Amino acid sequence: MRKKWAILIGAQIRWVEDHGRLAGHFRGEVTRKVKNDATVSFDGVTYEVPGHLRRQSVVLRYSFLEPGRVAVLDGATEVALKAVEPETNFQRRRHTMPLVNAAVPAKTGLNPIEQLLDRVSGRANRGPGGEAR
C-alpha cells in the first residue's frame, strides 16, 4: 500500500522549465533612501547605487531564492547592485569641486585696513591712481 502512495505522489510532481520565471515569483520589494555617497543599506549590507539616484527614495528588489541578489528599479529598468568593498571604495577617484583661489581676494573697492594705513601714512589725500587731490 505504501509503494502505491509514493508512485501516486511522484506522478503529480511538475518540474519547472523556466527558472527565470520562477525567480520572478519569489522576490520581494522594499523602499530605501539613497545616501549622499550613492550607497543604500539592505539586510545589513551596503550596496553601491548609480550616482544619479543620490538622495532619492528607490525601490530595491531582492530574491528569496538567491539571498545576495539585490537590484534597484531605475524607472522601468532593473539594475543589479553589488556590495561595497571597503578597500576598493577607498581607492576610488571621486569628483570634487574645483578649489577657489583664496590667495587673491576679490577687489570690492572697500578695504578698511588699506584706508586706515593710508590715513596714518598721510596718503589719505591721494586719488585712485595715486595722484594728489
What does this structure look like?
The chain is an alpha+beta fold and 133 residues long. The chain has a domain at 24-92: OB fold (Dihydrolipoamide Acetyltransferase, E2P) (Beta Barrel), CATH 2.40.50. It is 26% helix and 25% strand. The chain has a 4-stranded antiparallel sheet with strand order 1-4-5-6. The longest helix is centred in the N-terminal third of the chain and has 11 residues, at 2-12. The chain is rod-shaped. The mean pLDDT is 79.
Beta-strand content estimate: 15-25%
What would you say the CATH architecture of the domain at 24-92 is? Answer: Beta Barrel
CATH topology of the domain at 24-92: OB fold (Dihydrolipoamide Acetyltransferase, E2P)
Q: How many runs of DSSP E, i.e. beta strands?
A: 7
**Low-pLDDT runs:** none
State the CATH class of the domain at 24-92.
Mainly Beta
Structural class: alpha+beta
Helix fraction? 25-40%
The rounded Rg comes to 34 Å
Cα(first) to Cα(last) distance is 124 Å
CA-based shape: rod-shaped
Average residue-wise pLDDT:
79
Largest sheet: 4 strands, antiparallel
Strand order of the largest sheet: 1-4-5-6
Q: Secondary-structure element sequence? A: HHEEEEEEEHH
Number of helices: 4
